[in-house]
Amino acid sequence: MDSAHSAHSHTHAHDHDHDHDHGHDEHHELGFWQKYIFSTDHKVIGVQYGITALLFLFFGFVLMMMMRWQLAYPGHAMPIVGKFLYKILGPSMVGVEPDQMVNGVMVAKGNPGVMMPDLYNSFGAMHGTIMVFLAIVPLAFGAFGNFVTPLQIGAPDMTFPRVNMVSYQFYFWGGVIMLASFFIPGGAAKSGWTSYSPLATVADAHVPNGQTFWIIGMVFLITSSLLGAVNFITTIIQLRAKGLSWMRLPFFVWAQFVTAFLLLLAFPPLEAAGVLQLMDNLLGTSFFLPTGLVVAGQASVVSGGGSPLLWQHLFWFLGHPEVYVLILPAMGIVTEIIANNTRKPIWGYRSMVYAAMVIGFLSFIVWAHHMYLTGMGTRIATFFQTTTMMISIPSVIILTALFISLWGGSIRFNTPMLFALAFLPMFGIGGLTGLPLGFNASDIHLHDTYYVIAHFHYIVAPGTIFGLFAGIYYWYPKITGRFMSETWGKVHFTLSFIFMNLLFMPMFIQGMEGMSRRMYDGGTFYLGTDQVHGLSNWVIGLNRNISMAAWALGLAQIPFIVNFFYSINNGKKITNDNPWGATTLEWQTPTPPPHGNFEKPIEVFRGPYEYSVPGHVTDYTTQNEPDKHSHGNPVRS
Amino acid sequence: MEIPYAVKPRPDTGLYNAKVGIWLFLASEVMLFGALFSSYILLRVGAPAGTWPHHWLNVILGMINTIVLIASSVTVVLSWASLKMGQFGRYRVFQAITLLCALTFMLIKSFEYRDKFNHYEFQLKDGSVVDGHVDWEKTTAKVPKWIPFKLSGEGKIVVEHANVISKYPTTAENHAQLMEGPAPLSKEAKEAEERPEKEIEVSQVKAFSNYGPWHNTYTAIYFTLTGLHALHVVGGAIVIFMIWGPLAGVYRKDPVRYTNRVEVSGLFWHLVDLVWIFLFPVLYLL
């Protein structure tokens, strides 16, 4: 964005003349490609990640809105998009409504646009994949991490700017491969975002198929986050400004730091698994295909000897740390915003830092709680049950510290703060409902039901995504120099908050009533004949309520989208570089920050959250403000 | 704008940026190969008793490759030490040896791979199994080396030193014989110096494949592990070569930066070596 300004107005470029004495790069007129597409500036890359990830977030949500139609009205043609999908995806994916008896007369309805099972499965698998790997992680880690982390540690850029650029390119092309897979014969991957073998290998008869594309796309995405993770950790270790000791780092940076380690160490096993599944898929190996595999009633011609459980182990070894990759950056964002808007220090900063580290460590030894129903021994199950219960402790510590931080603050209820505040109970609901899933006894009943869907969506959707929205509203002025509209922000928040809950709360009920996830017809096949057997009409009927809430949630994003684009040129201008009165270093730069970020090397004298220090002129003391009385002393937080 | 500590170490960490970066990258590599080794263990433990193949690989060749790679790790260190002492010429020589070692390793590896792709197992319609290397000069049928393994038309296949097992599906004994590879030569056969070759008609063959990754889980994990390792050898060698040759001019302009590059590429090379030190016993000896 910063380069956008200097590109369009010559006068603006002159405003930054004072930047020239510490760098020569500004003198080169970079071409369009170098400036926006292959930029090595962490801020441009952050914005690239942000825009791309928001587009994927929207696309992933659209997939789900279409699936919700099928769940609410199984077998009926989709309105609005039905005919269009019929044209581009063909009759094997999108069907025509069957003829119907109306008053004893056969009526040909003939409306095209019925979602076929294969398409439903594709959309389901791709919704999960896109949301996790192409939307939330790139937004939380790629976008916010890239833009904010170097600024908050007083660094001129990432340690490896070109690696950073390559990382974005890998992400982008991984996304393109994923999207392209919708249009190949057989459609996109349709074995769930978990891609369990052998289903993933045998779902399509021909190769290459959607699953092949999925694996290759994943290898791109894994490479991207691997390069990103190395870059982030090195940057945080090496480029902290003078005086910025570890315990003076903003919690956001700590969250990104732990997240980067999770990505660094958890993704390679999935890459290994991807390679093995690709070999199964293309080269006829049997890593995950057992001896005597029967597909569609036919003995399969595979060499056999493989282990389907192996895939699950490798997948969930990534899969569980991935959950904390999703949540930790959001916790970091929320912490910044809560400190800023309560105008007081974060309570228990050190405990939060240690809790984040403990989460990082424990997240590597809980993975098999996703696999209680695979017939594992009780001792193994007990081990993973214990570690799962243990990992809830540091999560609760962080949440508690944030709640206590609110105590006695004079809270500013602006849009970022509203989202940040909503994050706390929403994440709380998501976390607490996870406990019955962590106990293997209760998990037997709840496994693979809508209860699970409700649980992890509470963490990721009203949890993480609210945290990300908070971050967008909070850092928007730093990027563009203008605020987003508060009024429309509050409309966006209120509606999103209401419909998020209307969307996910009923799923807990459906799940506890026994409705299995991944059912194409929304469970109507299991409609009970009496009160004891099958699903009740009421439980299945909830599908419509949920779908209505999902579509309403989609509409509720319109204020955000309009606000987001409208405010770039028309939002309220900021009056100084630190419009929120924040303490951390990213606000001590010009707006938008120039190439190289800081006008002169910055030095840090205090902790990250010195708000309302008695006797100070303002109610915030920036980290780089020299302390006359106790020069350089570490500040208790 | 210049990134701090790109060349000189940061005082409190004592490291320059790329060194932190490469160690982190190596950590992820350990996780990658760790996952594959774990897969190996799980597949091997999960195989029915007595069915995991042994001695399918040539230990002598593996041993030579092990020595070659360890030697290359030594020369990498020596070349870096030479640079530290400002002896650019010596660095060049040592690193040239490293590159030669990499080339030797890949040559031997490709020879081993080729052998596996020429090694076939034919299940015949009468229930017997013929196992051995195809003599391509005498063979008239079109035998594919790659999936899918289908025969068409007419012709004969000639298998050298054929190991013939009379019954398939195997009894435990037959299975053991098959898994052990060609049985040790009997006294008479030793006198004749080789087992007779075996001729098969295309029409006799029920199913077949060569010893590529598709053959069984052992060859699958063997090709995956060594293939991925070989990619690392090639990648590492290319980087070392680039620094050694085309980018050598950097040494005159910025010797510290150049030495750092050699150190970082050397660290990676050690990992490649280390992975092989685990691969050799796991695949060749155990």
Helix and strand topology:
The complex is a heterodimer of chains A (637) and B (286).
Chain A: H1 2-8, H2 10-15, H3 32-37, H4 42-72, H5 82-89, E1 94-96, E2 100-102, E3 105-107, E4 112-115, H6 117-152, H7 161-180, H8 199-202, H9 210-238, H10 251-282, E5 294-295, E6 298-299, H11 308-342, H12 349-362, H13 378-406, H14 415-432, H15 435-438, H16 440-446, H17 450-480, H18 486-512, H19 537-556, H20 558-570
Antiparallel strand pairs in A: 1-4, 2-3, 5-6
Chain B: H1 17-46, H2 59-84, H3 88-118, E1 119-124, E2 129-134, E3 156-165, H4 172-179, H5 187-192, E4 198-201, E5 205-210, H6 217-244, H7 250-253, H8 255-285
Antiparallel strand pairs in B: 1-2, 1-5, 2-3, 3-4
Quick structural overview:
Chain A is 59% helix and 3% strand. Chain A is mostly helical and 637 residues long.
The string of secondary-structure elements of chain A, in order, is: HHHHHEEEEHHHHHEEHHHHHHHHHH
Largest interface pair: A-B, 48 and 44 residues
Shape of chain A: globular
Could you state the oligomeric state of the chains shown?
A: heterodimer
Proportion of residues in β-strands of chain A: under 5%
Helix content of chain A: 55-70%
Q: Could you name the CATH homologous superfamily of the largest domain in chain B?
A: Cytochrome c oxidase, subunit III, four-helix bundle
Going by helix content, strand content and strand pairing, the class of chain A is mainly alpha
Output the number of helix runs of chain B: 8
User: Segments of chain A where pLDDT lies below 50 for 5+ residues?
Assistant: 1-26
What order do the strands of the largest sheet of chain B run in, or round the barrel if closed?
4-3-2-1-5
Spatial order of the strands forming the largest sheet of chain A: 1-4
The outline of chain B comes out as elongated
How far apart lie the N and C ends of chain A?
34 Å
Main beta-sheet annotation of chain B: 5 strands, antiparallel
Strand content of chain B: 5-15%
Query: What is the average of the pLDDT values of chain A?
Result: 91
Structural class of chain B: alpha+beta
Biggest sheet character of chain A: 2 strands, antiparallel
